[in-house]
Amino acid sequence: MKRAGFFTRFMAFALDLFILFLISVATLASVIAGYTIGKGGYSLYSLFDGMGMILAISMMSSMFIFIFYFTYLSGKEGATIGKKIFSIKVVRINNLDINLFISFLRCLSYIVSASLFFVGFFMAPIFRGRALHDFIAKTQVIEDTQ
Q1: Which residue in 1, 33, 46, 109 could disulfide with 133, CB within 3.0 to 4.6 Å?
Q2: Does the structure show a pLDDT above 90 at 104?
């Protein structure tokens, strides 16, 4: 099994983030619409008055969607939408499929990889295609030949 290259992984991750961005924008629009309807009408003052609550709800829902997206799709399907489009998938280092727990651990490890200017992600070209979150979760990303 051939490990996926850095550029392919990067493009798949970028596509996944774009999909999540669109979902987050739709979520924010829904929260604003719900707040406006709940207040009984639109006024700029009432919208600014509730901005803290609107942003808190949007941020929490976006974080939940991010974790759910990467955990569920990788854990159940072996790949997110971006990875499927680029024909790559996540497996354990012994080439077995990952489960939801390992997928959740890998997703949470993105935080560690992203800290300090995303240095954990840029480890992949140096360490034969494995980023910091791959080392933490004991996974690797391979080309999906099926």
Answers
A1: 109
A2: yes
pLDDT at 53 over 90: no
pLDDT above 80: residue 45: no
Number of domains in the chain: 1
The residue among 141, 120, 139, 142 whose CA lies nearest residue 131 is 120
Residue 78 lies in a domain: yes
